[in-house]
Amino acid sequence: MTARAPLLQVRGLTHRYGRQVGCRDVSFDLHPGEVLGIVGESGSGKTTLLKCVSGQMQPSEGEVAYRTRDIGTVDVYGMTEARRRMLMRTDWGIVYQNARDGLRMKVSAGANVGERLMAIGDRNYGHIRNEAVDWLERVEMDIGRIDDLPGTFSGGMQQRLQIARNLVTKPRLVFMDEPTSGLDVSVQARLLDLIRGLVGSLGIACVVVTHDLGVVRLLSHRLMVMKGGRVVEQGLTDQVLDDPQHPYTQLLVSSILPV
Amino acid sequence: MTTSLEDGVMMKAEGLAKSFVLHNQGGVRLDVFSGLDLQVSRGECLILAGPSGAGKSSLLRSLYANYKPQAGSVLVRHDDTVVDLCSAEPYEILEVRRRTLGYVSQFLRVIPRVPTIDLVVEPLTVRGVDPAEARERAGTLLARLRIPEALWGLPPATFSGGEQQRVNIAMTFVQDYPILLLDEPTASLDLENRRTVTDLIDEARQRGAAIVGIFHDAEVRAAVGTRSYDLTERKAA
Fold first, then answer.
1. Which residue, A31, A152, A226, B145, has fewest beta-carbon neighbours within 10 Å?
2. Structure confidence at residue A2 (pLDDT)
3. Which of B22, B62, B68, B118 to probe the A interface (max A CBs under 10 A)?
4. Same domain, A40 and A61
5. Domain ends where: A107, A136, A170?
6. Are residues A239 and B65, on separate chains, in Cβ contact within 8 Å?
7. Are the C-beta atoms of B110 and B156 separated by less than 8 Å?
8. Is the dihedral of CA A224, A228, A229, A232 positive or negative?
9. C-alpha angle A199/A203/A204, rounded to 5°?
10. How crowded is residue B28: how many other Cβ atoms within 10 Å of its Cβ?
11. How far is CA B166 from the centre of its chain?
């Protein structure tokens, strides 16, 4: 089997908040099209790790290297801020738990999607509009509401809009922080299936942070379990969930309430 | 450690050991098996035998890399290469499962609210089969397994136990896996459906699949098995 070159390489990543440690000595590779789930309780360091890995917060120690389409592998925190922002706008996407962090609430749904295209230089209004319509359809939104403000949408629709806004530039890597947490269970299942379908058919690599083991079982290929800032166990998702080795993972898996 | 397989051998376990340590129950250690060797070739159906609790399902799950063995290797012929599932990277294991290694579990576990037909179509479209052809093949198989067409558009959550099991079987048998692992696929089926599944298994073997299975029904064992492997004496002391 040919080993594929990793898309993202994280080495020895540590982040401290003053004397508090957010995450400690985390290393992993992410391959193209691979979905990595990160689970752990509140305060385990999973969101800190996601912020450091996704270019949003410089870690105290360690390296994040990303293999670009055109200029080889780059050190995410070694490049200029302007270049990093360009990378985040074009090749990456970030889906936030709270849609308000990821959407512009004062412009229409269509503009939220079109804006990302304009940011990478698209100036043809007709093309931008068509792409926006196409993406709103792909996330199963009502096209009749393309000119409405995101604030008038339900939570589930706001998450769909966020996903469309992120995927319109055809990113190779998407970070998601609790993408379904604030939603009704009935909305969650549909959204998860949508995310799974899009990510799978487009071959997008993903890092998904969640406290919900059901979400990672459905979405992620690989799983990392965090506790106290450290990765205590990692591996194939169904193997970690069905045959957990670490005491904390065993506790986590056995604590799921039956329906 | 071996990294090649003899001609015709599709899967080979060597020195395989499985135990569980229950950290939250006083650190109890359960040894299931150790030093286990087995292999299965093209056109063979190996029956795992032994009483309840002998570790048959644990072995089958270890062969699928769903359980993590404490020692040993599980070599799988994947295209022109040999992959050790005990040391492979997760993405390699998933690639092996996508095209080479099929597994029918005892219970159906699927994404809620996805229609039955889509569940059966998906393994094919993921591999690049034309959606119309995939639907045709999925429909043919569901019909053969006596799932009424009226149910195809519904998610299987509300189906009977036997219907769910047949959907589970369809999701695996819709593609021609070179290796199949079957964990009691006929357990809750009536006679007619049991015969259909028996036929499917035998057809898979005759086209060259290597099969490892657990079947509690003696009639099914006799109909599909070519060899058996008893776990009783393999049980770790």
1. A152
2. 42
3. B68
4. yes
5. A170
6. yes
7. yes
8. negative
9. 60
10. 10
11. 14
* A256 has a pLDDT exceeding 80: no
B65 interfaces chain A, CB cutoff of 8 Å? yes
pLDDT at position A231 over 90: yes
- The H-or-E segment that residue A207 falls in is strand A205-209
Q: What is the pLDDT of residue A65?
A: 97
For chain A, how many structural domains are there in total? 2
Question: CA of A231, closest CA in chain B: separation in Å?
Answer: 17
pLDDT at B112: 80
Handedness of CA B140, B141, B147, B153 (dihedral sign): negative
Q: Is the pLDDT of residue A114 over 90?
A: yes
End-to-end CA distance of chain A: 41
Residues A176 and A251 in one domain: yes
A180 and A230 assigned to the same domain: yes
CA–CA dist B133, A7 (Å, integer): 34
CB A246 within 8 Å of CB A62: no
Using CA atoms of A67, A91, A233, B68 in order, give the dihedral in degrees to the nearest 10: -80
3-state secondary structure of A82: helix
> Contact A131/A113 with Cβ under 8 angstroms?
yes
A202: left (phi over 0), alpha (psi -120 to 50) or beta: alpha
Q: CA–CA separation, B120 vs B113, rounded Å?
A: 14
Residues whose CB is less than 8 angstroms from the CB of residue B162 and which lie 6 or more positions away in sequence, other chains included? B188, B189, B190, B193
The mean pLDDT value of chain A amounts to: 91
Residue written as token pair 């769903």:
B66
User: Which structural domain range is residue A148 located in?
Assistant: 96-170
Q: Say whether pLDDT at A1 is over 80.
A: no
The token pair that represents B137 in the structure block: 């093949």
Average confidence (pLDDT) over A111-139: 91
The answer to whether B128 faces chain A, any CB pair under 8 Å, is no
Which of residues A136, A170, A204 is at a domain's end? Answer: A170
Q: Tell me if A205 sits within 8 A of A28, measured CB to CB.
A: no
Nearest to B92 among A1, A242, A246 (CB): A1
Does residue A123 sit in the same domain as residue A156? Answer: yes
Distance separating alpha carbons of residues A191 and A197, to the nearest angstrom = 10
Task: Give contacts of B66 with chain A, Cβ < 8 Å.
Answer: 238-239, 242-243
Q: Are residues A162 and A223 in the same domain?
A: no
